[in-house]
């Protein structure tokens, strides 16, 4: 199938575009009334595990917002269950792991699995979404990076300090590397399976990686994340995303990704200088600007675009996901504004 709207893929390849492509992390989710209506009937895991429902949620923002890419509705924790780390979503608290990983024996007990079998429902959803999109926009697949997946599995859920994770990392480096190597192999296989199913690009989420400094990133994370990108290299464009990463952007670029995500804590031109001119960049508007006055929202978007100054390789996005309280009309207006403003440059 030939994708008609190629702005996003062109930007991933650092090619010139007629207007800056835009998509939003969590562009499918709680800020949309149609998503909330589904959540009244189904749990989060039911939406993720039922291909027809995952397709519907993936397509909801495509019908209402002028975005240049769809991202598959799923959750980065889905591979944990076939790995032997079951979890569920607790209302108001987020994901909770039933039996957190804390010891070497816990790591050794993890199962190896074939993602084309254990996560077949995700791959079926990809095929169905591609059919429904019919070339309108590309489809992005994704997976979690080793540090973020390990942190969830070790902490048992969300954490502010990552004490258990770092205790294992510092206290038993050999076990830590064994865990991350297994996670990296699994994630690489999973992403390759997504590509085989039809995604046009993939994003690796290392949402919590900002908890590490550059030295620790190099020692404990970089080789494992490199392994993932090496497994996917040359198949489709790749995006590497994390938050709180201003001090480790060069290391993220070294770990891999055709495009590196930057959050709002650093001006985008400074971020790109740290990433280097051989990579594209994605970002980097503060998502809370969508909750403020429209004039300030547009001014923030204009500043991002002005700092990029038309340089090929920029994908406009937020520095993190759309917040649940965001009015959908603001998201619609922002996408149109980015296209119009960048096309005039």
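^ structure tokens above, recovered residues below v
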């Amino acid at each position: 199938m030939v994708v008609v709207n190629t702005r996003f893929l062109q930007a991933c390849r650092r090619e010139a575009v007629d207007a800056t492509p835009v998509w939003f992390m969590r562009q499918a989710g709680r800020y949309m009334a149609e998503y909330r209506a589904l959540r009244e009937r189904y749990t989060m895991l039911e939406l993720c595990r039922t291909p027809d429902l995952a397709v519907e949620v993936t397509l909801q923002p495509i019908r209402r917002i002028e975005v240049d890419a769809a991202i598959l509705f799923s959750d980065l924790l889905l591979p944990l269950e076939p790995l032997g780390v079951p979890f569920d979503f607790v209302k108001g608290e987020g994901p909770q792991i039933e039996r957190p990983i804390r010891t070497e024996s816990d790591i050794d007990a993890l199962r190896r699995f074939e993602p084309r079998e254990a996560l077949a429902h995700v791959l079926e959803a990809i095929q169905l979404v591609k059919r429904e999109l019919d070339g309108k926009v590309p489809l992005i697949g994704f997976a979690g990076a080793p540090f973020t997946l390990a942190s969830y599995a070790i902490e048992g859920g969300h954490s502010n300090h990552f004490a258990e994770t770092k205790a294992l990392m510092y206290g038993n480096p050999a076990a830590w590397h064994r865990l991350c190597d297994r996670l990296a192999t699994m994630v690489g296989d999973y992403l390759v399976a997504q590509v085989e199913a039809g995604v046009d690009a993939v994003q690796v989420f290392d949402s919590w990686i900002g908890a590490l400094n550059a030295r620790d990133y190099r020692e404990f994370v970089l080789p494992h994340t490199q392994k993932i990108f090496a497994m996917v290299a040359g198949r489709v464009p790749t995006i590497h995303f994390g938050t709180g990463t201003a001090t480790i952007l060069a290391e993220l670029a070294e770990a891999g990704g055709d495009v590196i995500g930057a959050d709002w804590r650093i001006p985008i031109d400074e971020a790109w200088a740290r990433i280097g001119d051989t990579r594209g960049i994605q970002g980097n508007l503060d998502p809370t600007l969508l909750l403020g006055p429209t004039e300030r929202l547009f001014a923030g978007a204009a500043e991002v675009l002005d700092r990029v100054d038309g340089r090929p390789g920029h994908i406009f996005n937020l520095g993190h996901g759309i917040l649940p309280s965001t009015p959908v009309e603001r998201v619609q207006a922002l996408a149109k504004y980015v296209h119009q403003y960048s096309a005039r440059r």
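The chain has a mean pLDDT of 96.
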